[in-house]
Amino acid sequence: MKSKLLSLPYIFWLIIFILIPTFLVVIFAFIDENYNFTTKWIIESGNYIGILFKSIYFAIISTLICFIIAFPIAFILSRSKKYIQKTLLMLIILPMWMNLLLRTYAWMTLLENNGIINQFLNFIGLGKINIINTPYAIILGMVYNYLPFMILPLYSVMTKIEKSIIEAAQDLGANYFVILCKILLPLSLSGIVAGITMVFVPSVSTFIISRMLGGGGNLLFGDIIEQQFIGSTYNPYMGSAMSLFLMIIILIIMWITNMIDKNKEDRQGMLL
Amino acid sequence: MMKFISKAYLGIIFSFLYLPILILIIFSFNESKNRAKFTGFSFKWYIELFSNDLIMKSLFNTLLIGFLSAIIATFIGTIAAIGIMQMKKKNKSFLLNLSYIPIINPEIVTGVSLMMLFVFFNKIFGLELGFITVLLSHITFCLPYVVLNVMPKLRQVDPSIYEAAQDLGCNPKQAFYKVVLPDIMPGVFSGFLMTFTLSIDDFVITYFTSGSSFQTLPVTIYSMTRKKVNPQINAISSIIFLVVLIVLIVINLKEEKKQRRLKI
Question: Is residue B214 a contact partner of residue B134, using CB atoms and an 8 Å limit?
Fold first, then answer.
């Protein structure tokens, strides 16, 4: 027990399988096939800047929708009876344990032009909607898949908000809006921050949801990166340059959320 | 009024979460391939599923990788956590921050960076993408979760009890096995379970590091969804849903039993 050497295998592992690969991405982004320094991959990635912005835009929209849906749920959950809380919490976690591919596949069949939703709309006389292979389908997929990631951290901070604080505010004449702005939002800040990161990061980097629900015409940045590594246009240099962009975006997000939420100890607990 | 609204709201959101899965399960019993009309009840797709060699083989691979990576990651991670506890604050926080990289990084970046490392390994050692590379990558993304699960339990261990055991004649090894290990066991166990589920659920990192010869279940499912309609996927979903449901119910019941015992 008195030995620091016990962590040596772990340190080696971190160096070989985490540090070196990360450096490989950075190095490959700046070299050409003959190992000379070049910025051409970074410049060429600039051609995809529109797709990058599109990915960020989609991720922001779905994070926002997740937040709007999840906030009331987390609040209702945190105020309900203990055994109801437990059951509902289990029901929220359950779909998370299903593979993302299966959950997305479910929507793929639902949204089809001849799928169940369209059959139903036809039946009640509303006609068809064309949603599969559009950006709407992608955002729907993101919200569906990542909603629990927003609900859970929000729920765990809200259970710590005492009932008496809200009651005191009500006694002193605060209406619902004031309670929301002055009590609920500030006190659940660390949960909001954790939820935003947990929804935004997988959304901005996805290639499965856009591929399955967006068809071929709605590629996101993750799809472009995937194409550089798998398939005929193998180009790890270009792929590394793009991955670097993605890493920088994530760093910026982490930096912003750290600024908003100074209480870091709390947040680390939330991430797990 | 408020109560009614909140109940209705919960109802809407939970149907949003569950209706797609429910429909998926219903259509796994459909006789035809039609995904919008139920033409008749049959177990056809389940029978086809269990006689599909590719799926059975990849299921086996998934469980094997999950088990091996969870065991290895739990071992390395647990002893690492013990070592990290002894470190000075500065080194400790540096290592823990490093551990957060694979948790924070998008999966696709972890996947491609590992793939590049293995391509590099291939040039030097001739290591092909396949079972070994998938196992190595799974251990990599599992390790931090073990460390972060065990650390809080270690912090709760009172060092004076460990010293007391030694004063009473235990050697350091015995003292560790008899005093410290039982205390941190819940953390070790939850680390193991967490890494096992992370491993069997992973698609993205496996996709980039598995090459063409070795497939886990999620990778097989992905290639199935790329092709045309296949109700076997519905059958897989229903089985996985059932398994997860049972596991969650068992965990919940066990916890309740434990709590009831504590109350008495």
Answer: yes
Q: Which residue has the tokens 């000379």?
A: A36
Structure tokens belonging to residue B51: 């006689």
User: What is the rounded distance in angstroms from the CA atom of residue A30 to the CA atom of residue B48?
Assistant: 50
Q: Do A4 and B83 touch (CB under 8 A)?
A: yes
Q: Give the ipTM.
A: 0.89
Q: Please, are residues A129 and A123 in contact by the beta-carbon 8 Å criterion?
A: no
Three-point CA angle B44, B47, B53, nearest 5°: 135
Q: Which two tokens stand for residue B247?
A: 């596991």
Instruction: Supply the pTM of this predicted model.
Output: 0.90
- pLDDT tens digits, residue range A15-66? 999 999 999 999 999 998 888 898 899 898 889 999 999 999 999 999 999 9
> In this complex, which of A22, A90, A99 lies closest to B113 when CB atoms are compared?
A22
Which of B 37-76 lie inside 8 A of A, CB atoms?
37, 76
Overall average pLDDT of the A172-200 stretch: 90
Task: Report the half-sphere exposure of A103 (CA within 13 A, side-chain side).
Answer: 23
CA distance A83 to chain B (A): 10
Residues of A in contact with B176 (CB under 8 A): 1
| Count of other CB atoms within 10 angstroms of residue B161 | 12
Cβ neighbours of B245 in A, within 8 Å: 94
Burial B232-261 (b: 16+ CB within 10 A, else e): bbbbbbbbbbeebeeeeeeeeeeeeeeeee
Mean pLDDT score of chain B, rounded to an integer? 90
Interface A-B, measured as beta-carbon pairs within 8 A, has a size of: 219
Alpha-carbon distance A136 to nearest alpha carbon in chain B (angstroms): 16
Q: Is the pLDDT of residue B202 over 60?
A: yes
Are A239 and B112 an interchain contact pair (Cβ–Cβ within 8 Å)? yes
